[in-house]
Structures are given as C-alpha cells and as structure tokens.
Amino acid sequence: MDLSQLPVEQGFRLRGQQVTRVETFVDAAFAFSLTLLVIFYNELPDTVAELRDALKRVPTFAVCFLLLSLFWTSHNRWSRLFGLEDAKSTVLSLAFVLVVLVYVYPLRMVTSSGLSLLTGGFVPSELGMDRSQWMLDLQTAFIVYGLGFGVLSWLLWRLNAHALRRADDLSLDAHERFHAQSEVGVYALMTACAFGSVLVSFAMLAAPATWLNNFTVGLPMWLYSVMGGLLWTYRARRGRVAPKAATA
C-alpha cells in the first residue's frame, strides 16, 4: 500500500477509497429502515385533517432519522478510515444491518412516547400499552430499545477494535492508532450505558410499587442523557492528550 498516495482527513489517511458490496448493502439497509419511519404511519392521508395529524409525527421521524444517521455515519467513517474487507469485518457489518432492521420499530415507539411526554401530547405516542400491565409493557419497550442501541454500539466497538488489532497490517502511525483507540473507547462507553439502561429496566420491574413515580419509571431513558455528558468528557480528555500521544 502506497500511503503517500492516500487522501488525508484530519491527519488520518483514508484507506477505504472504493465502495465495497458490503458497504452498499449497509447503505441500502439504512435507506430501507428510513422508509419505515416516514411520517405517514399506516397509510397516506386523504383529508387535510389527516395531513395535520400526520405532520405531528414529523418530530418523531426527525429524531429517529438523526439517530439512525449517526450510526450509519459511524460505520461509513470506519469504512473510509480503514478500508477493511476481511471475513470478520463482513460478519460484523452484516450483523449491523440485521440489528438496524430489527431496531427501527422499537426506536420509533420509544421516541414517539418520549416526545409525546415532552410536548404534552402534541406529538402522538405510538407506544400502545395494556393498562393492566403498563409497567411491564413500558419497561419491555425500554429493554428492546436498549438492546438495539447497545448491540449497534457494541458492533461499532468491535469493528474499531478489529481495525486496531490490524494496525501493523494497515501501517497505522501513532496519530491513527490514537484515533482508533479513541473510537474504541467511545463505542465501549455507549455500549456500557445502553446495557446499564437495560439492567435498570429489569430493576424497575422488580421494584416495589412504592418506589414507582413519573421519574423512576423513565429512569432507564435518563441514562442516555448521562451518556451524552460522559462522551463529551471522554472526548475532551482524549483531545487534551492527543498531541502527546501522536509524538510518543
């Protein structure tokens, strides 16, 4: 590999210059997932009143679109940076597609429920629950959402860790290795927070009724807000030590 001929982005030489069949499949899967999130929930509106109701679902679509785009961008960036096409990369990427296609519906249900709560019911909630077992239904939705988010994060973690193990084969320099280590840390942190949320949901199901209130029943989702703060702190810390690591 002639590293001098590779394009450079923020000090990282882009090794994945050709779009592979696996990448094309990942892109197509994400595009299909987005079609499942369109604002027209079951069928196209026939009246202006139905159109107004459909437009209330735009915030749900926008948030889901953003989250799926973040995962797609992460996989695309990994492909561009490392350009790996070996068996393990292919298996992990195909697993990534599988989880995305399963994750899209719990993503929409939980997102719409949260936005409905924040907007006082203006955004319709698509999280249908049986009143006789609402706690079980709510925490089940949180568990499925957390598993989807966690597995997607774990797969990105393993993809970046795999690239780091192939550092010598890829001729990664000190700066590139540091960047790969940072990516591994980011997705490991996201994975831990997601599975922590799943554990909290199971704890809520076992908690006595006296502990339950409007805050505690939604506690699993609050962990994702904590995750945002942890990621910002982690990236800031890595940014401070980056110059030293690159010259080590």
Automatic annotation (TrEMBL):
Write out the transmembrane intervals: 22-42, 54-73, 94-118, 138-157, 186-209, 215-234
Cellular component, GO annotation:
membrane
One Pfam family this sequence matches: TMEM175
Single GO molecular-function term?
proton channel activity
Question: Principal localization?
Answer: membrane
Its recorded reaction(s) are: K(+)(in) = K(+)(out)
Q: Which UniProt keywords apply?
A: Ion channel, Ion transport, Membrane, Potassium, Potassium channel, Potassium transport, Transmembrane, Transmembrane helix, Transport
* Topological relation to the membrane, as annotated: Multi-pass membrane protein
User: Please, which domain of life does this record's source organism belong to?
Assistant: Bacteria
InterPro entries named in the record? TMEM175-like
Query: Does this entry carry the keyword Transport?
Result: yes
Where located?
Membrane
Q: Can the keyword NAD be found in this entry's annotation?
A: no
The family line of this record is: Belongs to the TMEM175 family.
Protein name as it appears in the record = Transglutaminase
